[in-house]
Design brief:
Helices cover about 45% and strands about 15% of the residues. The protein has nine helices and seven strands. It has one domain: 3-Layer(aba) Sandwich (Rossmann fold), CATH 3.40.50.720. A seven-stranded parallel sheet has the order 3-2-1-4-5-6-7, with helices on both faces. Strand 5, helix 5 and strand 6 form a beta-alpha-beta unit. Bound molecules: NADP nicotinamide-adenine-dinucleotide phosphate.
Length: about 270
């Protein structure tokens, strides 16, 4: 556990903060002294999450679709009005669906790219213009995925996340002039709400992957949140443009073809 005031006086925005990994990051940020704004599309669960999280500190929420720049701008305006500044942006919102590449429709491809790549860019650019360009010290952490050896079975998200990894390197260089550090975290298979949405055969495949993992377990939301705190805090004050794999070494070892084999067996 980090020093309990390591994020004291910091204001953070966590996209997709109503569930899973984003919720875990928001909770840990609050416990470490930050003020947190969470946003995602569905208002009721977002409000519920904010109510739960308020036990740990000051939390605000606003429904927002990261694909819609007018809605992101409203979030920036609310952060400005309520807190006056933004120090930390966690681009965590995202989603995808498993499918062999040849069966992904034009709409399906565009939807995942728009959410996972374009949405991340839109939020980053707006928060940079509204806050980071006028401050001396800010942090962006992009939650991507383990696509180091490609992403058979989810070509769209692999491509989108690789795009975000490259964007991380570009923004780290372009925005360093205003003290913005930009890094990415690539989770392996994390036991979270995100896994529950997949059909049972795919979840069975993930279970098999757990046995193939060199550490013989899924990652936890806390594993990701701990890594995010490192990037978000001054502990990493000389680190920018990097990607940290939090995946039990899955980017190097394990069967990357397992998911696509399962998908083909379901056809
Ligand atoms: N769990 C894993 O094993 C794993 C591995 C690698 C990467 N990841 C990535 O890590 C992130 C968090 O995953 P998770 O497991 O916590 O899944 P999750 O519970 O499904 O979280 C995704 C969050 O993003 C929000 N969201 C999705 N699209 C959005 C949009 N267009 N605008 C605003 N909010 C949006 C969702 O809320 P609404 O539906 O209400 O908008 C939800 O709160 C995702 O990007 C996921 O792809 C997860």
């Amino acid at each position: 556990m980090y020093q309990t005031d390591i994020l004291k006086d910091k204001v953070a925005l966590v996209t997709g903060g109503r569930s899973g990994i984003g919720y875990g990051i928001a909770k840990q940020f609050l416990q470490l002294g930050a003020t947190v704004m969470i946003c995602s599309r569905k208002e009721e669960p977002l409000q519920q999450a904010a109510a739960e999280l308020s036990e740990y500190g000051t939390v605000a929420y606003l429904p927002c679709d990261i694909r819609k720049t007018d809605q992101i701008k409203v979030v920036a305006d609310k952060i400005k009005a309520d807190f006056g500044r933004l120090d930390i942006l966690i681009n965590n919102a995202g989603g995808q669906f498993p499918a062999p590449a040849e069966l992904i429709s034009e709409n399906g491809w565009a939807a995942v790219i728009n959410n996972n790549l374009n949405g991340t860019f839109y939020v980053s650019q707006i928060m940079y213009k509204e806050f980071f360009a006028h401050q001396n010290s800010s942090v962006i952490v992009n939650i991507i995925a383990n696509m180091h050896r490609g992403f058979p079975g989810m070509a769209h998200t692999g491509a989108a996340r690789a795009g975000v990894e490259n964007l991380t390197k570009t923004l780290a260089q372009e925005w360093a002039q205003h003290g913005v550090r930009v890094n990415a975290i690539a989770p392996g298979t994390i036991e979270s709400s995100g896994l529950e949405q997949y059909p049972q055969p795919i979840r069975d495949r993930f279970e098999a992957g757990k046995e193939e993992n060199l550490m013989k377990r899924f990652g936890t939301v806390e594993d990701i949140a701990n890594a995010v705190v490192f990037y978000a805090s001054d502990l990493s004050s000389y680190v920018s443009g990097t990607t940290l794999y939090v995946d039990g070494c899955e980017h190097l070892a394990g069967d990357r073809m397992g998911l696509i084999k399962t998908l083909r067996s379901m056809l």
